Amino acid sequence: MDSERWMIKFPKNDIYQDALGTGVSFFTDENDKNIHPFQYIESMQNPDCTKALLRFAEHIDMKKIEQLIEEIPENIDEIFVITDAQNNIIKQFFI
């Protein structure tokens, strides 16, 4: 199987757009206008939200996340899972 055709090639801007810029949201503000959760968090306009995010972030163990990514096998039972290049791309984005 040609594993290169399965190569993930997402520009960083596309990933940012999917995570932060999507128009799909059921969260609303006090005027019933849809808000985007990630943009709301990123704006730091709500001190309680920002404090909660910082408390959450304190518990993220990046070494464990890196280990999890490193442990993704290239193949399982002769079924292609991920290439080393894809694994490295994932690490670049998340670690």
How would you characterize this protein structure?
The protein is mostly helical. It has 2 domains: 11-58, no CATH class; 60-95, no CATH class. Helix content is 51%, strand content 4%. The chain has a two-stranded antiparallel ribbon. A hairpin with a 2-residue loop joins strand 1 (75-76) and strand 2 (79-80).
Poorly predicted spans? none
- How far apart are the first and last residues' alpha carbons, in Å? 29 Å
The DSSP helix count reads 5
Query: How many domains in all?
Result: 2
Shape: elongated
Residues in helices, as a percent range: 40-55%
Give the SSE order as H and E letters.
Answer: HHHHEEH
Q: How much strand?
A: under 5%
Q: Rg, please?
A: 18 Å
Q: Count all strands and give the number.
A: 2
Instruction: Characterize the largest beta sheet: strand count, sense, and whether it forms a barrel.
Output: 2 strands, antiparallel
Mean pLDDT: 80
Strand order of the largest sheet: 1-2
Going by helix content, strand content and strand pairing, the class is mainly alpha
List keywords for this structure.
95 residues, two-stranded antiparallel sheet
Could you provide a short overview of the structure?
Helix content is 51%, strand content 4%. The chain has 95 residues and is mostly helical.
